[in-house]
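Example 3.2
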Amino acid sequence: MQRYSKATTVLLAGAAVALPSAVFAAEGGAGFYLLGSKGPAAAITPPPGVYFQSDFYYYSGDLGGGTALPTGGRLAVGVEGQAAIEIPTVIWILPEDIAGGHLGLSATLPLGWKNADADVTLAGPRGGSATGSVSDDVFTIGDPLVSAFLGWEQGNFHWQVGTMINIPIGDYQDGEISNIAFHHWGADVFAATTWLDPTTGFDLSGVIGMTFNAENPATDYRTGNEFHFEWAAVQHFSPEFDAGLVGYYYDQVTGDSGDGAPGPFKGRVAAIGATIGWTFKAGEVPVSTRLKYFHEFAAENRAEGDAVFLTIAVPLSITKPTTIAAQ
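Structure, written as tokens:
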């Protein structure tokens, strides 16, 4: 088998950061962490330097269910939504050796389109009913995010720990069912590991994390703590091309709360899919591209659908590593 060049993976594979969710608002059963944003080589930290990464994300799915009303009636809501969002990210890997690893910092600002349609049926206690529908379409800017992570490697093993902060200053419209911004502070912490054999080209990666949400002051709604696990198993067939399987599992471990929450709902969903990666040069600049597809299933109190990521990443500058001497 052709030997796999590690440089084609470490270029940008570890630079992917947690990104904002683009399907439903947090109150709708989804957190701001974008499931599927991590993938192959998730724990590999690129060489020191500055990088630019563009993620185009498309999602189509539906969210259905019912909520008991105080009058004894029942409100059945079927929501269908689509989103197409461009998510640019700038990543800076510091040249200093910190605790035996390298520190990465990043900033992200999503921009895109989202549409949601809901059918509502209100059944009265005497058998009567009323039906209606609502639709919302928006093209706007979401909440910016900042992230930091520290990565190490030893032989074929690579690992990272990091955090990401959602800053609630995006364009949020109170009362609308389509929002890209979340209008609340939030933090996600994660740990990732990758085993990459440069001889066979096999990559096995996994990421676990927990998202913590503050209350949305516009709705008095606070989403509970959210656990997420992402995995990838890919085979590099050459230094330029790879393909394999990806997936994720999401479980809300604490219920929603706040005056605006009608009940302690918890969300859950799983997904499996496929990915292909291709690395090429534009002149002397290496360009890393990846396509990921996910199909969701076993959803509870959140959207279930299909998601596609198209990622393009390039280095803007490469910095020579340095070491900080112990004091």
